[in-house]
Amino acid sequence: MSAAANLVDFAGKVKSLPPEIRLALQKTRSEFLTVGIYSLTINCLMLAPSIYMLQVYDRVMVSQSELTLLVSTLILVALLVLVGLIELLRSRLLVRAGIKLDQSLSPVLFSAALEAQRHKSQNNPAQVFSDLTQIRQFLTGNGIFAFFDAPWFFIYLGVLFLLHPMLGWLGIGCAVMLICIAWVGHRLSTPANKAVLERSIVLNADQLGKFRNAEVIHAMGMLGNLRMQWWQRYQNQALAQGELESMQHRIAAFSKFFRYTQQSLSLGMGALLVIQGELSPGAMIVGNMLMSRALQPLDLLVSSWRMMAAAQVSLARVITLLNSHPLRASGKFSQTPFGQFELKGLSVKVHGRDAPVLDNINLNLPAGRIIGIIGPSASGKSSLVRAILGLWPQRQGNLLLDSAPIEQWDAKLLGKHIGYLPQDVGLLEGTLAQNIARFGKLDPEKVAAAAKAAGIHHLLLSFPKGYDTPVGEAGHLLSAGQRQRLALARALYDKPAIVILDEPNANLDEIGEQSLLEAIRTLKEENKTVLLISHRKPILEIADVLLVMHAGRITHVGPAQQVMAELQASKVGGLSA
Predict the structure, then answer these.
(1) What letter does residue 143 receive in the DSSP assignment?
(2) Residue 190 CB partners (closer than 8 Å, separation 6+)
């Protein structure tokens, strides 16, 4: 496929864009329409140098009129100044269009990338922002001018035929040659370009993974082996990059050779026609200029084909992401939930695993109760609460919250009424207060109340900047248990109606355990719905209802004391002191 075909294919993709991209492009329609008008004006004005040369060689040189030369030169300079000003305006408009496009799409892609990361549907969702940059650079760079200048090829070609048919046929031959160069270049370099891109993505992911685990690598003496593994991948990527660049240099060298040859052939053809008396010297010079001008859009296609192909690949990835994770419509339920969950035939499957993670779960969880969940490792405990939170894309069956399907609730507003403490704490870049307040509007009283409920208030005040201490800085000062209590404060912020705690005492000491028990007792007094995953008896003794899971199924459910008695009678483990 040639660069021109890439351009057509790229335009074809634009016609089948997701609504989010279509809306973003509509916002920039006025800019691109104005750029088209400017391009039309520029191409019209660029006929002036050809007319000027024709006048100089065929009139001024014959009449020896200095006044005619002066006036013609002044008019040409004025027109070229106008061309320069319009070029400047056109470039500024494209930059403004690029900013508009970025501002319109970035928030949408951010949400879609988070959804993709949550669903584990893509290896590197953050790549979409590099894809957006690639698309924006193409739409606002020199490559886009090929769209606006390409029709002028036929106009310039028509003028060449008017000067002499031989010049027109030479122009067609040169155009075919340029297209062939682009086609050959694309066929030769596309596999190499794809290999470089794939190896670069793998290499970057490998590097980030190693940097995140720098402490473990150093402590366990893994640096030598991992560095050798990284070096092999780096060498593979570097070799592929070198092969691609070498091929591109060869194509560029041949393309440059052809451009120089084309200029000489154009002059030679014109000179031959002048010798035969079929063309004037002025028309010979004008023919050469028009030939270069006619081939300029095609030459631009050849020089920008790589960016065009990269933009095409990037656009395909963006379309795939947005089609897979479109913006969800707001649900009709936005009130504060009571917290009653009903699961009907709930099943969850994971790609690459035959057995379901959750297998046909039917359960009614009453509101305002403390519900304990226990079971051996990989029994489906965390998967159950994640399914209740709507974090599993492969969920089957019905999940009702307060007798309404969970999909009918407004996800953004519902999230404010849910507190969630996962096994992986996941503090975000920002201050301690911002993390507790979930990066919403800071309410110092609510932040302090949540920190006190988690038993971490005095610790946070002991920092030099107090609650305004950056998490990155505090991360070196907080232990694993203290980070878990900070995440507990985030889960308890603003007294949510539903609180889900997944192994909240995994890293807690005795003081932290007591703070957690007090927080759960407070939630019980306030009739909050709490789902609690733990294996320690003291914290489970507070529970009203106890679930026991095994291999993705619920084996026991009922009042906590009754279920614990059944487990002890049947000698089923899973509880610790």
Answers:
(1) G
(2) 309
Which residues of the chain carry a pLDDT beneath 50? 1-8, 10-13
Q: Which residues contact 313 (CB under 8 A, 6 or more apart)?
A: 197
CA–CA separation, 18 and 28 (whole Å) = 16
Give me 165's structure tokens: 């048919």
Burial class for 235, CB neighbours closer than 10 Å (0-12, 13-18, 19+): exposed
Q: Give how far Cα 346 sits from Cα of 119, 282, 303, Å.
A: 17, 83, 55
Which pLDDT score is estimated for 78? 92
* Class for the domain spanning 3-324: mainly alpha
Question: Which residues lie below 8 Å from residue 412, measured CB to CB, with a gap of 6+?
Answer: 330
Report the C-alpha gap between 143 and 119 in whole angstroms. 36
120: left (phi over 0), alpha (psi -120 to 50) or beta: left
pTM of this prediction?
0.67
Return the domain boundaries, the chain: 3-324, 341-569
For 381, the token pair is 């405990």
Q: Are 19 and 251 in contact (CB under 8 A)?
A: no
* Burial of residue 506 (number of CB atoms within 10 Å: 0-12, 13-18, 19+): middle
Please give the single-letter amino acid code of residue 202. V
Question: What CATH number does the domain located at 341-569 have?
Answer: 3.40.50.300
Tell me what pLDDT residue 14 has: 52
Non-local (6+) Cβ contacts of 370 within 8 A are 520, 523, 524, 530, 532, 542, 543, 544, 545
**What is the Cα–Cα distance from 486 to 399, expressed in whole angstroms?**
30
Residue 575 token pair: 């509880």
Pick the closest to residue 100 from 26, 11, 34 (CA basis): 26
**Within 13 Å, how many C-alpha atoms sit on residue 130's CB side?**
9
